[in-house]
């Protein structure tokens, strides 16, 4: 009888103890892909893009992400006033401006289910939706003089929005790192609406608090 009671307590306590073990809750994400710009910039051939993001788990089905993305957008033809005329007009010329976008954003990943299996202690293969917003620094000025460096360029500071969807594929034991695929629509409020529709693949590494908290175990 005593053995049966101990066995029952073990069976009841086992899943509960497993549920109390927290999964790694910090992440580093790196991604590469290609995107095409539409809208104010006109259509552009697919051009490279990439990003580096940091994440933190907010709940079993939500992550918060801080991202920095780079988009190489189509060069833009712009009419530039060169000199005034006697008819209250201007002499103009067409200049081709190199255009690049550096986007800083805060995003939310909503997983369509629980991203972590607490019983078996591994992450799940699961799709997600993504939404967020932030600030874009768009480089759009004439080619700089010979010898000028990157910091001589001017920026337009604009508002950007992210909307997308993807899926996580845990690798190895499903605890430490993932591959993921993602489609993203990055929208910029710039003299109208510019959209950069991109597809990208990435790698996500998980870190627990023991790896990122320098004071853990000291106090």
Note down, in words, how this protein is organized.
This protein has 219 residues and is mostly beta strands. It has helices spanning 2-19, 209-212; strands at residues 26-39, 47-59, 62-84, 90-111, 116-117, 122-123, 126-140, 155-170, 177-189, 193-207. It has a single domain (23-212), classed as Porin (Beta Barrel), CATH 2.40.160.20. The protein has 2 helices and 10 strands, in the order αββββββββββα. Residues 9-20 have low confidence and may be disordered.
In short:
By secondary structure, the protein is mostly beta strands.
What overall form do the CA principal axes indicate? elongated
Overall SS class? mainly beta
Pattern of helices and strands: HEEEEEEEEEEH
Uncertain segments are: 9-20
The portion of residues assigned to helices is 10-25%
Alpha carbon gap, first and last residue: 45 Å
Mean pLDDT: 78
- As laid out across the biggest beta sheet, the strand order is 1-2-3-4-7-8-9-10
Largest sheet: 8 strands, antiparallel, barrel
What number of domains? 1
CATH class label: Mainly Beta
CATH architecture: Beta Barrel
Helix segment tally: 2
What proportion of the residues form beta strands (DSSP E)? over 45%
CATH topology: Porin
Number of strands: 10
Rg over CA atoms, rounded to whole Å, is 25 Å
């Amino acid at each position: 009888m005593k053995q049966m009671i101990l066995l029952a307590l073990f069976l009841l306590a086992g899943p509960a103890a497993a549920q109390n073990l927290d999964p790694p809750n910090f992440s580093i994400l790196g991604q590469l892909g290609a995107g095409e710009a539409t809208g104010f910039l006109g259509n552009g051939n697919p051009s490279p893009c990439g990003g580096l993001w940091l994440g933190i788990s907010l709940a079993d089905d939500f992550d918060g992400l801080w991202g920095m993305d780079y988009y190489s957008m189509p060069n833009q033809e712009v009419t530039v006033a060169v000199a005034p005329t006697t008819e209250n007009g201007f002499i103009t010329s067409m200049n081709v401006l190199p255009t690049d976008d550096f986007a800083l954003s805060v995003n939310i990943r909503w997983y369509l289910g629980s991203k972590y299996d607490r019983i078996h202690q591994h992450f799940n293969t699961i799709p997600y939706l993504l939404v967020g917003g932030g600030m874009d620094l768009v480089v759009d000025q004439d080619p700089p003089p010979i010898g000028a460096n990157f910091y001589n360029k001017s920026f337009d500071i604009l508002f950007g929005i992210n909307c997308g969807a993807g899926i996580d594929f845990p690798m190895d034991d499903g605890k430490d790192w993932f591959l993921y695929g993602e489609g993203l629509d990055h929208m910029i409020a710039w003299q109208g609406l510019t959209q950069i529709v991109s597809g990208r693949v990435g790698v996500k590494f998980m870190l627990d608090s023991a790896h990122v908290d320098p004071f853990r175990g000291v106090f």
